[in-house]
Amino acid sequence: MEGIKITKEVDARGSFCPGPLMEMIRLIRSAQVGDVVAVISADEGTKKDLPAWIKKAKHELIAEEPVEGGGTRFICRKLH
Amino acid sequence: MEDKISIILFSGTVDKLLAMATLASGAAAMQKKVQIFVTFYGLLAFRKDAWKTNRRLSKDFEDFATEAMKAMEEKKVPSWLDTLKAAMEIGDVQVHACGLTMDLLAIKLEDLESVVSDVVGVGTFVENASGGQVLFI
Predict the structure, then answer these.
(1) Do B90 and A49 touch (CB under 8 A)?
(2) Which of residues 11-40 of B touch A (CB under 8 A)?
């Protein structure tokens, strides 16, 4: 992701539903408005849960990208 | 349907406690108001430190019990109580103890885990649940 600075990232691989989602919520809560944070998850349920939460909570899902070694990085901007 | 979910926790087995806590987490994350009414075996599971020693699983699935416990331990699934505490951190989750069970079994609020906020009767629970989804576990 060129030009986008991730201020904080949590590697939540090894934790299961709803662990990675909880990590994202904690990250967003501790971030400043405009900050970009990321959670890496290998949990299948999170693939749908995380984007659904970001939409519901009215933040911005910037990208979902595969991570070396398995899993997905969910990159989110805090909007409010 | 109001944006709230009410869970009646009647069971005290680890599998069902984990289901309760996971559902509460998901609902809290999706910004639903959650109330959990703990009654009977569910209330027993909330006695202080009971979560540390409780290894009961549903009788219906006892042939699967050893495998399930092993998988949960190997994969380091957080305890149902930790999962519930996490849900309380991120959303509006209230745990109420059933007054009838407390009286029957002579349990006091201070005998329960601190996540339990108060003791209510079934009338209060039903009133609070009115207009939302209700789950019986």
Answers:
(1) no
(2) 22, 25-26, 29-31
Task: Give the architecture (CATH level 2) of A8-77.
Answer: 2-Layer Sandwich (3.30)
Token readout for B122 is 């079934």
Residue A18 pairs in a beta bridge with: none
- The secondary structure element, H or E, covering residue A43 is none
Question: Are B45 and B51 in contact, with CB atoms under 8 Å apart?
Answer: yes
Supply the pLDDT for residue A1.
Answer: 62
Chunked into runs of 10 residues, chain A (80 residues) has average pLDDT values of 88 92 96 98 92 96 95 97
Q: Does B75 touch chain A (CB under 8 A)?
A: yes
Domain that holds residue B73: 4-136
CA dist B108 → A7, A27, B48, B103, B117 (Å): 46, 37, 11, 8, 12
Q: CATH code at B51?
A: 3.40.1260.10
CA-based nearest residue in chain B for residue A16: B77
Interface ipTM: 0.84
| Chain B CB within 8 Å of residue A29 CB | yes
